[in-house]
Amino acid sequence: MSINTVGIVGAGTMGNGIAQACAVSGINVVMVDISQQAVDRGLATVDKSLDRLLSKEKITEADKAAALGRIKGSTSYDDLKAAQLVIEAATENHELKNKILKQLDDLLPPEVIIATNTSSISITQLGAVTGRADRFVGMHFFNPVPM
Asked: For residue 67, what is the DSSP state?
């Protein structure tokens, strides 16, 4: 299976950084959060981060535009159905992560890989709330992700 679209749940520090890293690498991204304000903040953070890379001549205007064009912001989990990989990047709260992972497991087709960006919660415990232990992984990104 090839991964053409990555879904990200959480547009905060880690989520928007993961979105940027994927988009700069040529992967389409759907970044979902609970409010449009949170989504807009995440997109603005990516825009600013890309501006810094542009000012350092690490990317071109065309690279920036292409990366931003690959990121779709949303408040609907339904938009994650287009992804082959969905990364949960919510606040480090076990109950919240369990709730999100259960919703993703119920919503997404069985072939979709679900990942968590936890830094301290057991991957085994988080994966247990899904019915896809064979398609559940821990992906820990360091902050700032795009570095």
From this structure: H
Quote the CA–CA distance of 83 and 65 in Å, as a whole number: 21
Q: Considering the domain delimited by 5-138, tell me its CATH architecture.
A: 3-Layer(aba) Sandwich (3.40)
- How confident is the model over 64-115, as pLDDT tens digits? 999 999 999 999 999 999 999 999 999 999 999 999 999 999 999 999 999 9
CB 116 within 8 A of CB 86: no
- Radius of gyration (C-alpha) of the chain in whole angstroms: 15
Catalytic residue among 69, 140, 143, 144: 140
Active site residue 140: yes
Domain regions of the chain by residue span? 5-138
Distance of alpha carbon 122 from alpha carbon 138, whole angstroms = 9
Q: How far apart are CA 21 and CA 14, in angstroms?
A: 11
CA dist., res. 14 & res. 81, Å (int): 21
pTM of the model: 0.94
State the Cα–Cα distance between residues 89 and 8, nearest whole angstrom.
7
Cβ contacts of 39 within 8 Å, gap of 6 or more: 11, 31, 32, 33, 73, 74, 75
